[in-house]
Amino acid sequence: MSTDAQHQHPTAPSGTGYDEVTLARLTADAHQIVGRYPQARSALLPMLHLVQSEDGYVSRSGITFCAEVLDLTPAEVSAVATFYTQYKRRPNGTYTVGVCTNTLCAIMGGDEIFDELSEHLGIGHDETTEDGAVTLERVECNAACDYAPVMMVNWEFFDDQTPASARGVVDDLRFGKDVVPTRGASSVCTFKQMSRVLAGFTDGRADEGVGAGGATVRGTRLAREKGWTADPAPEQPAESAAGAEADQPAADATPSTGAEQSSAERTEETPADTSSGTAASADEATPAADEKSEPAAQDTTSSTSSAPTTSAPTTEGER
Ligand code: FES
């Protein structure tokens, strides 16, 4: 596709191997995705997630579909799909279980958790159980080091894990029990469902739960208790200072639901909101400065399928 008009209205590719109904649906979705970008090729990453939402991995049909819609060669699409580990080259399990084994999580037990799951499930890194339920991965830092060691299930957080709690989570997943993340969303969706979210189609769960829990806002709480403040910013020329002020929200402004940082400010509504170690706001429910957060759902064999004991997840960015 080479014109702006075509960028906004991708035609239906003919050589993908998808049946007519599937192709029409994917093409309509592609139309929405491509329309978000000034150049069609910029839509490749969400398009690959769209393919995964259909096929469970980046299939040959999906590569052809992306190439034809975005006016790229299959080789160009493959080059991108094989660069990022979030794009799967063979059918993925219903749940991607990613154990962080980066520095801090490894020190706090991440390696033991991975080894436990690997032995328990009988699979290694980037392998899937025979029943197709779980794909196990070592993952890099999930930006949740304050809850180390961290495990993710389809990019939803399971904080403060132990080998036993992690084993409980994967058993519940395989037995079809409800599994509740320890922070964020109050449920875990399937890999295909999450892939559709990553393609840019909301599932309505983005504002569930508390994103910034107790451990995350502990420094803020401590500073307020102690009356600590940052040094004042250096004087700025009048013009640039006025411009900077215009870009900043009022200090006491309360974000509306769905706005940036709204999760940390909203009232408790979901099971994940009331779990331990999370805070409804930076001023409330944050553990005392010297208080250590309790591990989340340690024996998750039962806890993940009943009342949530802690918090939940997010989506991971491209790695
Ligand atoms: S090292 Fe594991 S979340 Fe940062």
Task: Describe the structure using short key phrases.
disordered C terminus, 319 residues, iron, metal ion binding, 5 strands, five-stranded mixed sheet, alpha+beta, globular, Glutaredoxin, single chain, NuoE-like, disordered N terminus, binds FE2/S2 (inorganic) cluster, iron-sulfur
3D structure, described in words:
By secondary structure, the protein is α+β, with helices and mostly antiparallel strands. The protein folds into two domains: 4-81, no CATH class; 92-227 and 259-319, Glutaredoxin. Helices cover 37% and strands 6% of the residues. It has a five-stranded mixed β-sheet with strand order 2-3-1-4-5. A hairpin with a 5-residue loop joins strand 2 and strand 3. Helix 3 (44-55) packs antiparallel against helix 4 (60-70), helix 3 (44-55) packs antiparallel against helix 9 (191-198) and helix 4 (60-70) packs across helix 5. The radius of gyration is 22 Å and the shape is globular. It starts with a helix and ends in a 16-residue tail after the last helix. The structure holds FE2/S2 (inorganic) cluster. Residues 100, 102-105, 141-142, 144-145, 148, 150 line the site of FE2/S2 (inorganic) cluster.
Number of strands: 5
CATH architecture of the largest domain: 3-Layer(aba) Sandwich
Number of domains: 2
Strand fraction: 5-15%
Helix content: 25-40%
How do the SSEs run, as a string of H and E?
Answer: HHHHHEHHEEEEHHHHHH
Structural class: alpha+beta
What are the segments in which pLDDT stays under 50 over at least 5 consecutive residues? 1-9, 276-319
* Average pLDDT, all residues: 79
CATH superfamily of the largest domain: Glutaredoxin
Characterize the overall form. Answer: globular
Largest sheet descriptor: 5 strands, mixed
- CATH C-level class of the largest domain is Alpha Beta
Question: How large is the radius of gyration?
Answer: 22 Å
Count every helix, treating DSSP H or I runs of 4 or more residues as helices.
Answer: 13
**Through-space gap between termini:** 28 Å
Report strand order across the widest sheet: 2-3-1-4-5
